[in-house]
Amino acid sequence: MGTFKENFASHWTDQSVRLVSTPSKAARSAFFYVQEVGHFQTLPGYFTEREHLNSYLIVYTIAGKGYLNYRNRSHTLVPGQLFFIDCMERHYYATDQQNLWEIYWVHFNGGTSRGYYEQFAKDSEPVHSLGIQSPVPDMLMQLIQLHNQKDFRTEALSSNVLVNLLTEILLIAYRPQPDFDSLPVFLPPVVSYMDKHYNEDIRLDRLADMFAINKHHLAKEFKKYIGFTPKEYVINLRINKAKEWLRHTSASVEEIAGNVGIDNVSHFINLFKSRVEMTPLAFRKKWHTSHP
Description:
With 292 residues, this protein is an alpha+beta fold. The chain folds into two domains: 170 residues, Jelly Rolls, CATH 2.60.120.280; 104 residues, Arc Repressor Mutant, subunit A, CATH 1.10.10.60. It is built from eleven helices and eleven strands. The chain has a six-stranded antiparallel sheet with strand order 2-3-10-5-8-11. A five-stranded antiparallel sheet has the order 1-4-9-6-7, with no helix packed on it. Strand 6 and strand 7 form a beta hairpin. The protein is elongated and about 70 Å long. The two termini are 47 Å apart.
């Protein structure tokens, strides 16, 4: 881990709000928790530059204009946009000098913050535009209100708001662009076919021929809209069906492997273990032990 570095000009109005929070031991072990949260109306010269801070940052632009430099890319920030970054990485953000920036923001950590960030960042830019009906600004206001008048409920309630906030941001990141706001017409029948024939030999070439689609286009659109490659989608179907057989029947592992379309039982066991983190027999034993 590198050395924490920070340079800033704390130029904001007297009406601005900045609330610092130190999480309890319980919050650190169990919750998502707020480190700082606020509402800034900036003044000329406001900026922050830092790296190696163990924190995640969400900033929503209410009004004015700001600038973000992150991962060697520059972004202009306008009303209705948010950014979500990992503060361990070098970053710089600042107000426009004429069109002064107004923002809601929260530094947070804990829980599975890292996992949420990695899901957000793997196929996504740090900056996203929100719709008019987005609940994100209200969620940030809720966090400010919770930490403005703290009581015994604050940490648990804040954790709940952070989970909802992060879920909403992930959905924004996953959401197709406006010109692709509905599934391509060929995808529902492809998915329906895979759902019904998961235990058969389903290959990309065969699907492409059956539905008269270029296989590269099919693979790209399937991943974009469904969230999995066709191969991974079939594997997940087979694992889920295998779980049902293990839970509700006495069929052998070899029989179940064949029933879900995997002829090689060793391959099935390895595949199951890689996805479920236990063998099929261990899964069956755990389920039957905990659910009499």
